[in-house]
Write a structure and sequence with these properties.
273 residues; alpha/beta; TIM Barrel; two-stranded antiparallel sheet; GH; Beta-glucosidase; Glyco_hydro_1; beta-glucosidase activity
């Protein structure tokens, strides 16, 4: 069927990149285990026909064992890997260190993840507590998947900035979303670094085109390039929509530079208000 249709088959992994909470070997190992339990548990079987060794060593027979036929069917069954990535977190070892009970569990790889170190966040905060702004995390997770999975074709299937919506949020603030523009510029610049190092990234998709219903957060946060009036259903472009349109029309890398005050002024004068 695939041969006759000429299609490709892939899967999407929801990813974070992780950094050791402390400059200690046990936390560096916790990073490896966390990546195995969050990213590799999904991709390893479909590329190599087996769960990652880090999971097998901790969970043992709690993990299903594939038959030779199942391994053959699974191995190499992907044509591409989709990557959802919004940020990065710290990882802390829970084998040798004291951790909350919920983190000191085999199913968590005996690792605790957090966005805070000594009360300081790993990156800028957004409308979702664990979605910190850490652009270099995009470069690192793409590098990781490139090396681990033999540079299989990759697509960034989700990446976006969440801004909170509350009673004090004005329409002016909603439409003049400079932080979203700065976010995408920074993440695209990080992605470009990974591509220049050889990563076979074939597409980048923003989450999301329109403000939408965001699961537990409902309509209280906004990811969209377009604002949606819930009463009239009118779609109103934000500055980020204009910027992204300009970016897609650009043929140079200059559009991924930091947003200057001059650029801010240009976008303000042409904003939909």
């Amino acid at each position: 069927m695939q041969e006759s249709q000429g299609g490709t088959i892939g899967i999407v992994a929801h990813t974070f990149m992780y950094e050791p909470l402390r400059d200690e070997e046990c936390d560096r190992q916790a990073v490896n285990r966390t990546l195995a339990f969050v990213v590799d548990w999904l991709l390893n079987p479909l590329v190599f026909g087996e769960y990652p060794a880090e999971m097998r060593s901790i969970l043992g027979n709690q993990l299903p064992r594939f038959s030779p036929k199942e391994k053959s069917l699974l191995r190499g069954s992907l044509d591409f890997i989709g990557i959802n990535n919004y940020g990065a977190l710290y990882a802390k070892d829970c084998f040798l260190s004291t951790c909350p009970l919920n983190s000191s569990r085999p199913i968590r790889g005996f690792a605790e993840t957090t966005g805070m170190r000594d009360g300081i966040p790993i990156g800028g905060q957004t409308g979702i507590p664990r979605f910190f702004v850490v652009p270099e995390g995009m470069e690192k997770i793409v590098d990781y998947i490139k090396i681990k999975y033999h540079n299989m074709p990759m697509y960034i299937t989700e990446n976006g900035y969440s801004s909170p919506l509350n009673q004090s949020t004005t329409m002016h603030d909603t439409l003049h979303d400079f932080k979203r523009i700065e976010y995408h510029k920074a993440y695209l610049a990080a992605l470009l670094k990974a591509i220049r190092k050889g990563a076979d990234v074939r597409g980048y998709m923003i989450w999301s085109l329109f403000d939408s219903f965001e699961w537990n957060s409902g309509y209280n946060i906004s990811f969209g390039l377009y604002y949606v009036d819930r009463n009239t259903l009118e779609r109103i472009p934000k500055l980020s929509a204009q910027w992204f349109s300009d970016f897609l029309k650009s043929t140079s890398d200059s559009n991924i530079k930091d947003l200057s005050e001059k650029n801010r002024s240009n976008y303000v004068t042409t904003a939909v208000v």
